[in-house]
Amino acid sequence: MRTRTTTIAAALLLAALTGCSSASEPEQPAAAPSQAPAAEAPSTSAEDKAKAREAAGLPPSPEPQPRAAFLAALNALEPDLVHGKDDKAISRGLDTCSALKRHPGDRSKQIEVTAKRWTSPDHPEGRSLPTAEKVLDLSHKHLCPDF
């Protein structure tokens, strides 16, 4: 009895849904997108970029010599710090410099932030505090000596 009632209810529901989905007119295709040229994004001047970096506590991008010295020092300390990604290592070094600005006088916090920032495939949780301290010192020496 329950099977028959369920079957009848399902058939009625199916008939109701089929009736709701039929359209009296065929659907029209969506209008083609406009061919108007996209407005150019406003460019940011070098001066504005420098102000934004300063406001974020980041030093300017390093010149070639300090950049190379920083990368060489990291590779000498532990090759996995750079792991073949020079630009990423420089970015992390600049971010490490910002920790000096964000936590002035709080060496332990600077080291803690640095330890978390320098992850790699072999160190997904970050670095040991002694390694982080060395990385912090290298970043300060090569990328942001004025901080």
Give the topology.
Layout: H1 2-21, H2 46-55, H3 64-77, H4 86-102, H5 107-117, H6 129-142
Overview of this protein structure:
- This protein has a domain of 78 residues.
- It contains 6 helices and no strands.
- Helix 3 packs antiparallel against helix 6, helix 4 crosses helix 6 and helix 5 packs across helix 6.
- The relative contact order is 0.11.
- By secondary structure, the chain is mainly α.
Provide a brief overview of the structure.
The protein has 147 residues and is mainly alpha-helical.
Number of discrete helical segments: 6
Helix content range: 55-70%
The rough form would be described as extended
Low-confidence stretches are none
Structural class designation:
mainly alpha
Report how far the terminal alpha carbons are from each other: 84 Å
**Biggest β-sheet description:** none
Number of strands: 0
The fraction of residues assigned to DSSP E strands is: under 5%
Order of helices and strands: HHHHHH
